[in-house]
Specification:
Layout lengths: L3 E10 L5 H17 L3 E17 L2 E14 L2 H11 L3 E9 L2 H18 L1
Antiparallel strand pairs: 1-3, 1-4, 2-3
């Protein structure tokens, strides 16, 4: 198995979904990360926010961040599933490679875990 890399993914879900549907979409993304060999470290639920610009006629979006470790090969599959999910307006993956970046990733994931509790 390839070495696990540190990643952060942020995605914006359509604001027109109910709370239950939003939670279901988030769980679907988490399950997909784990199915592809990823290990979720922490999550940051940023809630509904104003978008910087209108996307698909939406002025708001539900922001969610997941800090996880995963084999590099899994990212392409995760991106593919994001693209075909019509409920996700935008998404972003950030890879943390060197020691300084991984230290920052650890700090951010710890803060997200504290915020969640």
């Amino acid at each position: 198995m390839s070495k696990l890399k540190h990643y952060e993914t942020m995605f914006i879900i359509k604001p027109t979904l109910t709370d239950e549907e939003t939670v279901a979409e988030i769980e679907k993304v988490k399950a997909n990360i784990e199915k592809n060999g990823g290990e979720i470290v922490s999550c940051d639920d940023m809630g509904s926010r104003q978008l910087a610009y209108e996307i698909e006629k939406n002025k708001r979006g539900y922001y969610f961040v997941i800090y996880f470790k995963s084999p590099a090969s899994a990212i392409l599959e995760l991106e593919r599933t994001y693209r075909i999910n019509e409920q996700i307006l935008r998404f972003l993956f950030i890879k943390y490679e060197n020691k300084k970046e991984i230290t920052a990733w650890t700090k951010m994931s710890d803060e997200a875990a504290k915020k969640a509790n």
